[in-house]
Specification:
Layout (H helix, E strand, L loop, with lengths): L1 E6 L2 E6 L7 H15 L3 E5 L5 H8 L4 E6 L2 H16 L9 E5 L2 H7 L6 E5 L8 H8 L7 E7 L13 E9 L2 E8 L1
Parallel strand pairs: 3-4, 3-6, 4-5, 6-7
Antiparallel strand pairs: 1-2, 7-9, 8-9
Helix pairs in contact: 1-2
């Protein structure tokens, strides 16, 4: 089953089983990073429909890597990108790449010294990612990492990961968003 997710005035397809990031959370991320995001690469981990990466592109990101492993989600993601480019809502010149592999493998292989913006919306049942992502992500100083997770009834301990500083912690309904910056 395919559903829809809104990105601004755009309507994107969303594969069954994909929990799209709420528009209020995507907008909050855009508001926090708007001045910085322009000209930087976005990496959308657990990309699903691609709504977060597409939002970053609409806010001026220089390009986006969409990392997704689920076959149906990949097909829908590619369709969304194709339709946005076909209808000239995204420039065909923007560097876009769909990386069809598990995030674990991507993190082992990807490294850059440049500043990038990384968004991670892992399955909410997989709580390991909150600590694993900052520990394994090899990006340049000044990069941002946003981690979306389910808001816990009891406040979880702040992230403590060498080399990363928590910039903001917000919650939107049952969604928690933590924004970290690499030192």
């Amino acid at each position: 089953m395919i559903s829809k997710v809104a990105v601004g005035c755009l309507r994107l397809k969303c594969a069954a089983g994909v929990r799209p990031t709420k528009s209020i959370v995507r907008q909050a991320m855009a508001d926090m990073l708007r001045p910085w995001l322009s000209g930087h690469l976005c990496i959308d981990l657990f990309a699903g429909s691609g709504a977060v990466g597409i939002t970053a592109l609409c806010e001026g990101a220089a390009g986006c890597l969409f990392v997704e492993r689920e076959r149906l989600a990949l097909r829908v993601l590619r369709h969304n990108l194709f339709m946005l480019q076909k209808n000239k809502l995204l420039s065909a010149k923007l560097p876009l790449k769909v990386v069809p592999q598990p995030v674990e493998i991507f993190l082992r292989r990807y490294t850059t010294t440049e500043e990038v913006f990384v968004w991670a919306d892992p399955p909410w049942s997989a709580t390991k990612w909150r600590q694993l992502l900052p520990a394994r992500l090899q990006v340049g100083g000044g990069s941002y990492l946003a981690i979306e997770s389910q808001l816990q009834p009891t406040r979880s301990a702040p992230l403590a990961c060498p080399g990363w500083v928590v910039q903001k912690r917000r919650h939107y309904g049952n969604t928690a968003l933590e924004l970290l910056r690499k030192e």
